[in-house]
């Protein structure tokens, strides 16, 4: 694979990915590590429960009872082009009488993969499961730290029947900490503002390569519960193959089109329209522009009502993310009854700062690099145009970024499954895409 994610692009261009992620072999090892105590808890409940009485009860002395369950090994490995292999070894302590105890080892080898169900959700599926149960023989001459397995299987024994190996295989995916309920949470809608939501929809079942499990996602945005149409990316999203030795658990990638779509959604929701109170009043403005004195009989605050006149655009370059805003400012007087007396076009070029907190990407305007003001009407002379720029440019330069940062202060949720957060995040901005290698961390339960 020299290009990732683009391999998953369907023929329909309206269903192109604009972001995605790779769960690396390191990430799978971490999921296995945090799933081990969970698996032990589940197996204890399943195996140590008292069996139902048989029609002809056996004597109490011959009845097998599992008195201890300990998961010794729990691993999750990648099988390129196929899926994942789950390997579990469980040590069981079994007693058939108060004075008789024997050690057994339950081994489970299962093949897992993720499918997309008809509802469009990802679903963890078991394609094969092979359980075995063997007795561990320890003698006086054998080191207890290295018990030997007997060559004879206990298949068909009373212990086998009590353990109900078939049931364990049917529910083997529940031994992991990301069952299907958590996978479904990947496609849940997340709030950005009270009116705007983001949703990451899987485009296809994941692919499996040596680099990890590759998931391709398309972002949709909702305003007041309705999915809004966004411009289609001119080119399908793809990203370079990551380093195979990457220690990160997960590598997320977001296209330039993702960020443009985000700000377009905010623009369509009205979140970028702001009302700015300048430091001027009609009286102080009349000192510089004499015509103002005849327009307003009383001294009123001067207000700028700023609205977007076309969709914003984000440009990604090496180590730099640039936001381009195309605004129109209606300059007027009065806060309750607004009276506009001039219209000015404002083009803002601002640098964005990106960071990650838990599972949210914090996007903020770090610095305004350029602002251009142009009068929307041509019947005003250049002297007045220069004067308006002198009077209102500082307000626009300071307040527009502050208002945008206020809109985005809660951050934008990243694709994630429930109960996991991101740590050790390293954001790298490249031309056309942003790469976010990070580690997974299981949230502490309260």
TrEMBL record:
Which GO-annotated molecular functions does the record name? lipid binding
Signal peptide annotation: none
Which top-level group of life is the source organism from?
A: Eukaryota
Mind telling me which SUPFAM superfamilies this protein's record contains? Bactericidal permeability-increasing protein, BPI (SSF55394)
Coiled coil (UniProt feature) = none
The annotated region (Disordered) lies at: 132-158
Please identify the protein, giving its name as recorded: TENP protein
Q: Which organism is it from?
A: Chloropsis hardwickii
């Amino acid at each position: 694979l020299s290009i990732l994610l683009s391999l998953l692009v369907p023929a329909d261009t309206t269903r192109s990915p604009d972001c995605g992620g790779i769960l690396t072999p390191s990430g799978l090892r971490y999921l296995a590590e945090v799933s081990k105590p969970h698996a032990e808890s589940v197996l204890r409940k399943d195996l140590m429960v008292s069996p139902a009485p048989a029609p002809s009860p056996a004597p109490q002395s011959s009845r097998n009872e599992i008195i201890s369950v300990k998961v010794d090994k729990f691993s999750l490995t990648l099988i390129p082009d196929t899926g994942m292999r789950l390997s579990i070894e469980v040590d069981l302590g079994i007693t058939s009488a108060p004075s008789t105890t024997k050690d057994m080892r339950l081994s489970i080898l299962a093949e897992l993969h993720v499918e997309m169900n008809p509802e469009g959700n990802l679903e963890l599926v078991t394609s094969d499961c092979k359980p075995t149960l063997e007795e561990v023989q320890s003698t006086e001459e054998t080191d207890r730290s290295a018990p030997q397995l007997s060559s004879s299987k206990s298949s068909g024994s009373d212990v086998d029947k009590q353990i109900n190996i078939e049931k364990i295989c049917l529910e083997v995916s529940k031994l992991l900490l990301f069952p299907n309920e958590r996978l479904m949470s990947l496609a849940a809608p997340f709030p950005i503002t009270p009116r705007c939501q983001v949703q990451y929809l899987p485009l296809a079942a994941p692919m499996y390569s040596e680099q990890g499990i590759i998931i391709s996602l398309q972002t949709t945005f909702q305003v007041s519960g309705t999915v809004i149409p966004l411009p289609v990316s001119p080119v399908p999203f793809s990203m370079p193959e990551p380093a195979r030795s990457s220690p990160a658990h997960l590598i997320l990638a977001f296209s330039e089109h993702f960020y443009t779509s985000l700000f377009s959604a905010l623009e369509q929701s009205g979140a970028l329209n702001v009302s700015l109170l300048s430091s001027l009043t009609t009286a102080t403005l009349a000192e510089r522009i004499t015509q103002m004195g005849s327009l307003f009989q009383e001294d009123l605050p001067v207000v700028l009502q700023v609205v977007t006149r076309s969709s914003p655009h984000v440009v990604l370059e090496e180590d730099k993310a640039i936001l381009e805003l195309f605004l129109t400012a209606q300059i007027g007087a009065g806060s309750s009854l607004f009276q506009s007396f001039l219209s000015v076009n404002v083009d803002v070029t601002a640098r964005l700062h990106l960071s990650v907190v838990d599972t949210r990407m914090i996007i903020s305007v770090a610095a305004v690099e350029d602002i251009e003001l142009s009068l929307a009407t041509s019947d005003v002379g250049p002297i007045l145009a220069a004067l308006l720029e002198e009077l209102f440019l500082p307000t626009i330069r300071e307040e527009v970024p502050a208002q945008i940062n206020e809109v985005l202060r809660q951050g934008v949720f990243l694709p994630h499954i429930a109960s996991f957060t991101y740590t050790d995040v390293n954001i790298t901005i490249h031309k056309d895409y942003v790469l976010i290698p990070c580690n997974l961390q299981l949230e502490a339960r309260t």
